[in-house]
Amino acid sequence: MSKPDDYDDVERCVTEVIERIGKEIVLGIPMGLGKPNHFVNALYRRAKQDAAIQLTIMTALTLEKPKGSNDIEQRFLGPLVERIFGDYPDLDYIVDLRKGELPDNIRLQEFYFKPGAFLNSPVQQQNYICCNYTDAARVFVDHGVNVIAQMIAKKTIDNRLYYSLSGNTDVTLDLLPLLMEQRRQGRKIVCVGQVNANLPFMYRDALVEAVTFDMIIDNPVYDFTLFSTPNMAVDSADYLIGLNVSALIKDGGTLQIGIGSLGDAIVYACQLRQRHNEIYQTLLAESGLLQQYSPLIEEVGGTAPFQEGLYGSSEMLVNGFWHLYQEEILKRRVYDHVVLQSLINEGRITEEIKPELIDLLLERGAIQIQLTRADFDFLQRFGIFRRELNYEDGYILTPAAMQIPADLNEQREPIIQHCLGARLGNGIVMHGGFFLGPQSLYAGLRSLDEEENQRFCMTGVSNVNQLYGDETLKSLQRRQARFINTTIMVTLIGAAVSDGLDDGQVISGVGGQYNFVAMANALPDARSILMLRSTRRKGTVVSSNIVWNYGHITIPRHLRDIVVTEYGIADLRGKADKEVIAALLNIADSRFQDELLEKAKQVGKIPKDYQIPSQFRNNTPQRLEALYRSYRDKGLFPDFPFGTDLTEVEITLGKALNAIKSSMATPGGMVKNFFKVMESLSIPEAARPYLERLQLDKPVTLKEQLIQKLLVAELVAGGHIQHDGTAVV
């Protein structure tokens, strides 16, 4: 490949792409953060203007700034969106799609949706591609992708310009070699990179040379605010699920978690386990977890502080991993060498380098008696030999001008004395495929110096999400792996529903969940843990998320493993169906246990005389809420454990608006709200900051006056302000 063409204007770049490829363009862009918005928008606009251009956009997780579905939501979100997203440019194709104005010559195909974003969207439901995340690169090729484009970072290293795929190595690293092979066979392929100075520059597998790209767009006017996902509030059920999961994580093991409040709850519980272990142990005892699941916890996880620490291997480097790293919980380093990793796992060596390491490496055949250049490079790469040494013509050269023959038979002692380093180097605490999170995550990654940055290896999703390819090394690194994912429903015989509904509507996508569950079954000491909120609410109707059966599944029951709700843990692996049913009944909400049990008895899947043990018959929100509140009153379980972009006023407004929305879902609630409005004859002074935030302090229309009074009534009812107008402390 030759040096890429540089562009300071996206329009010129688009023109060149069309000249090289023609008007049949299949554009592949990364999921999530790494989309080069300006280039994509310019290409999309060109296709809108020229119906002869047939443009297919292949991607996943198209990110959209929240806009609000009504006037009040828009008032609430407007200043918040401006503050958080800054000059982030909307993707024109998704704006037009939402308006029903996507041109006939343009098609959008995604293999993963933002959860719930395209329910009841026929166009997207029809064009959705169902595949495992690890198969996305192959799917792109099968669909004829001929242009790939990505946002990238740049840096000059040793007077040479390098680029970084940053937070989206996931599909790109898998896709590039496939497309380059097609190029060698004569297909026209174009690779475009758009530089954004705000993007963290990641090293290791994310580091690529300029020749990777055919065209690079580099102009400061295209530096835009990175899309961020503000931290979500964590409620009582999420916290208790996270607490239960945290006791299943083995010190010295491997962790995979996802984004959102449940992932944050796990991290918070791990921090509690680390910082305040006595409180953590007491909480586990009072929740009943230790009494009911001690053998499982002892076998699978633990409750003591993390001494050895964890290693992360997750398709997504989420904000939680950053907090685990800062807490020195994410600190177990792995090494990309089978012999070295084997010796560490066996306890034969530690990160402190001792002379015996050389003998062990010789014994395992990792190096030769007569050290070759390759042997020297290996020893230096992992810090076994000091960085300042050089190798030339069979001699090791030291800064003191010594020339030591590279012969471990004759020169072992001089080599040991003058060449050995102090500690192993080049270890990795985290392998990830992509990252997405709040601005604080990006700022943290940008703040890392090169040595610390190298501890995070952004790599291809095929490397993270499965064992195929270098299975021996991956198995050694991913010891005691806990692959923790979220599901929305579980059937009583152990199948999981995570990505869609029984009418065929897609909620999100399979993503990597199936791969991680399968990998947990393939690794000798790994476990899959599916987190499940026991119930869901629609208006005033509460339903169980543990169901008898369902018309769609994501994880088949033959891969059933561990399921966790706020009420406890169900260990399903290798169990008979009647044992699986019994275990899931034990962690179901007690309002639905009898109905589920009766269904299982009707079809003969559990003995007619079976009764749910009494200790599991008090699975009620009230019991857990009382436990949660008692610890919240002691300063634990904050709404936002890792901070928030919301102001205190916005947090309170959010709670009040959600309460109003929920109460308005039923006729009875609407009547109650009407009387609340009628009773709100005056506006207390303490309500002013909330009303000003929504521009309701000086209502003009009758609608604004009614909403103002309803909001004030809810602020009073929620205990946020008092009747006499003074603020509640």
Q: In words, what does this structure look like?
A:
The chain is α/β, with parallel strands linked by helices and 729 residues long. It has four domains: 5-222, Glutaconate Coenzyme A-transferase, CATH 3.40.1080.10; 236-333 and 430-616, Acetyl-CoA hydrolase/transferase C-terminal domain (Glutaconate Coenzyme A-transferase), CATH 3.40.1080; 338-419, no CATH class; 648-717, no CATH class. The chain is 39% helix and 15% strand. The protein contains 28 helices and 25 strands. The strands form five sheets. Strands 1, 2, 3, 4, 5, 6, 7, 8 and 9 form a nine-stranded mixed β-sheet that branches. Strands 16-15-11-10-17-20-24-25 form an eight-stranded mixed β-sheet, sandwiched between helices. A hairpin with a 2-residue loop joins strand 5 and strand 6 (160-164). Helix 13 (338-345) runs parallel beside helix 20, helix 25 (648-663) packs across helix 28 (702-717) and helix 26 packs across helix 28. The longest helix has 16 residues, at 648-663. The protein is globular. It starts with a strand and ends in a 12-residue tail after the last helix. The model has no long low-confidence stretch (mean pLDDT 94).
Structure summary:
The chain is α/β, with parallel strands linked by helices and 729 residues long.
Descriptive tags:
729 residues, alpha/beta, Glutaconate Coenzyme A-transferase, 4 domains, nine-stranded mixed sheet, eight-stranded mixed sheet, 15% strand
* Approximate helicity band: 25-40%
- Report the CATH C-level class of the largest domain: Alpha Beta
The beta-strand count equals 25
The Rg value, from CA coordinates, equals: 28 Å
CATH T-level topology of the largest domain: Glutaconate Coenzyme A-transferase
Structural class estimated from helices and strands: alpha/beta
**Low-confidence spans: pLDDT under 50, at least 5 residues?**
none
**Termini separation (Å)?**
66 Å
CATH architecture of the largest domain: 3-Layer(aba) Sandwich
- For CATH, the homologous superfamily of the largest domain is named as Acetyl-CoA hydrolase/transferase C-terminal domain
Q: Major sheet, described briefly? A: 9 strands, mixed
Strand content: 5-15%
